[in-house]
Amino acid sequence: MEVVILTGFGSLKTAVDAIRLGAADYLLKPFNVAEIISVINRILAKKKQRDQLTDFLNELGNMVGHESTIDEVRHSLTNKPAMVDFLKKFFNQVMEPGASIHSGNHLEFVRVLSETLENKDPFTHGHSSRVNYYSNLLAQKLNLSQTELRDLQVGAYLHDIGKLGVDTKIIYKEGAFTRQELLLMRRHPEIGVDLVTPIGLSQNVVSIIRHHHEFYNGTGYPDGLKGDAIPMLTRIVSTSESFDAMVTDRPYRKALPLKEIVDELKRFANVQFDPYLVQLLLEIIEEKGEDILPKRFQPSRSMTA
Ligand SMILES: [Fe+2]
After folding, report:
1. Cα of 89 to ligand 1 centre, how many Å?
2. What is the band of 297 on the pLDDT scale with cuts at 50, 70, 90?
């Protein structure tokens, strides 16, 4: 169900909060009927596009999820040119040259893709958006080009796309993984690359998808890349992703307090994370304090009554 907030007590902050908590739109009273109808039409058009994409992705995910080797996945994809064309068409809209990083619209499709993925895994709800947000905070401290910024955003949203190819039973599992399940789960970066290769995304985005689980000391996967051999944009996404894992509740533990997160980041600098990015992230935490933590949805009294 899509939700539109109608309020007589509007402010920029309540509008931003409403959208962040999932409202499709926000209207101030007094409103007129024409305005409501145009909002509803716009939301329905968007929903139709999203449903179409969701169906496509589920089909793709099912197909990949039942294949046993990377080669078979690749083979299946090349045998389904209609699927690849469909995806390509959407990506071309997203990646068209000159698309402004500030326009907001070009990321809509990527956002839908990542939301579809997150629907498969209830514990990562909003994960990709937050990884994008933290990556952006880091990027603001680095001298990145417009192209790098755009690739970083797309990569932050799509880094886990390969999870479409991992069996839902494994993703939903609450206890520890068996060795076999862990191996399957760890295939998601390679499956992700296979999914996007036919679309011709930029090398930066492909690297983020393939390498977001590499460790700075070379003990990560799938390639055991070390230090600067891991591309910078990928290091930004993997630092942001781990940070998000610490600030949110997981099936096996609650979110960590900020003080503990700072200790963890310091402990894993040079191990899992690029020490320079840790230093930048610590500066950001210092500047923003508790504001950096994701907002939790607190039902108001009128809603619980
Ligand atoms: Fe991942």
Report:
1. 25
2. very low
